[in-house]
Amino acid sequence: MITAVRSNKASFKAVSFVPGFNVVLADRTKDSTKKDTRNGLGKSTLIEIMQFCLGSDAAKSGLILNKEPLTGWSFSLDLIIGDSAFSFTRHVDSPKKVIIYGDISKWPIKPQRNKKTGAKEMSIRDFNEALGDLMFGLLLDEDVIRYKPAFRGLISYFARRGRDAYSTPFEYYRRQPEVEKQVLNAFLLGLEWRYASEWQELKDKDKMLANLRRAAKKGLVKDILGSLGELEAKRVRLEANLRREEEQLKNFRVHPQYQEIETRANKLTQEIHGFENDNVADANLLDYYNQSIQQEHPPSSDDIIKMYEQAKVDLPGMVKQRFENVQMFHFKLIENRRRFLETEISRLGQVIESRREIIRQKSDERARLMDILNTHGALEEYTKLQRLYTETVSQLKEIEQKIKDLKRIEQEKSKLAIEQELLLQRARSDLEERHAQTNRAIDLFNSNSEALYEAPGNLVIDIQPPTGYQFKVEIERSGSQGIGSMKVFCYDLMLTQLWADKKKSPDFLIHDSTIFDGVDERQRALALELAAKESQKRGFQYICTLNSDMIPWQEFTPGFDLTRFVQLRLTDATDDGCLLGTRF
User: Is residue 543 part of a domain?
Assistant: First the structure.
């Protein structure tokens, strides 16, 4: 329960609160003009300051708490937790620490004493952990649970901040994750919130499996998964390759002079090709000589006579030889050419045969070398075979792992369906066992809504697969903005009524004037009277901020005087009439 909000600056409008009903009023004075406004007077800022002193993130406040003009400011929140009074002070300049005044002997986490100032200080994280235990009974040993209620989330249903916080009863900010809504609301309603946590973990697992299958189908993740049949076929092929490579390695023999032998064999091949080319050239020349010798015949006597007679006519005075001499010259010329051809033919034959013998010898030597090369291998070739074998082993192991993973995913899918069904059964059974708790919450909500609209509303608490807990509120004529705000009002009031009976409880409910925007004057009056009556009756504290022109003075029940609950008046008449005593 909050007793006061203070600051280290004299201009700040300190405010004290009492048990029961409390109003912070933004008043239009007769001296103000039509251009003046109550917006910016500090109603919402007051709630931000209280949340700031309760460990909120100042950088996310969206108001002026993290702005430069507040340098040097600090704010203090006085409150009673259980039977002990405390004061929490937080500096705008150093918001990571909270200074604590009061008896902290029963705190689950103890503050550290500042060596310079002697003040008891805590980090924001430890401070929120401690308040979670002190105000809501949160256990500190549940760190292993991924989705669990936290103080900052729970307290935000008792002190909503910002316009979006009043859009729906089950969210305190827009687009709040479903698991957070389920966990926090289940905890506040007295349900087994761990089921909501388990449900989300199963949804996370289902999403992960779905993403893997979807990625494999679209080819976004190369070779992560395929069909089981495709993977099995690939495994069989790799096993066959592995057996073949293993046999090659087993029968492989490395020759130490493999490189020299291979070089010699290559050289022999080149030499053989050279000799064969020379033999082809000489064989062509031999054929030419053989044809030539067959065509060589001595000329006839008539031909020689004709040539002789013609020479005397054409070359008179030059032909002095006798015919017999000329005839003998021709016979010797033919005979010499024939002997030359016969000699060349014999020589070429011998050269060709000699080369053939050399070719036979070199071919035999090359055959022996090739036999060695065929039955042995080089060391680098063996190393290459080993590398290929290792790669095949690796690929086979990878495929086998993928097959294993795919089978596990399919098994997990089946297991997940079973776990979801078992969780559904356990959660429904637990919800049935807690019918007294849920009935009380439903009765309180219905009673609150009936007090405003003369017809009971409905708070629906259910469990449906695959989402888990489902919460819904219904009030007749729920089409208007005002009805939506009153759903939030009735739900928040119901939560505070439930927690007022607990040993550990915030013992307060804070509403900004935003909750009454668009609400009919009659319902606005009934809501304020209901908050005053219930807070007094059940011993909790209700704090609301209001604009003076929003107060339905004519609709209040006779005898209800709202002015006696006003703890602080803010005015738009002058700049120092706002909460901070100055405008920024």
Answer: yes
Element housing 578 (H / E): none
Give me the number of domains the chain comprises: 3
User: Per the domain annotation, does 452 fall within a domain?
Assistant: no
**Among the ranges given (47-51, 88-92, 372-376), the one the predictor scored with the smallest mean pLDDT:** 372-376
In a domain, 448, yes or no: no
To the nearest 10 degrees (0 to 180), the angle between helices 435-453 and 481-499 is 140
366/378 Cα distance (integer angstroms): 18
What global pTM score does this model have? 0.71
3 state SS of 122: strand
- Residue 570, token pair as written in the block: 């803010």
The edge-to-edge listing of strands for the beta sheet with 112-113 is: 15-16, 2-7, 74-81, 84-91, 97-101, 120-123, 112-113
Q: How far is the C-alpha of 492 from the C-alpha of 511, rounded, in Å?
A: 9
pLDDT tens profile 296-312: 666 655 665 666 567 65
> How far is 23 from 164, CA to CA, in rounded Å?
22
Residue 206 has pLDDT above 80, yes or no: yes
Residues 6+ apart with CB under 8 A from 54: 77, 88, 131, 155, 159
Residue 465 within a domain:
no
CA 249-252-254 angle, to 5 degrees, is 125
Helix, coil or strand: residue 152: helix
With 0-12 / 13-18 / 19 or more C-beta atoms within 10 angstroms meaning exposed / middle / buried, residue 403 is: middle
224 to 211, 403, 412: CA distances (angstroms)? 12, 10, 17
| Residue 406 domain boundaries | 194-254+382-431
Alpha helices in 219-227 (DSSP H): none
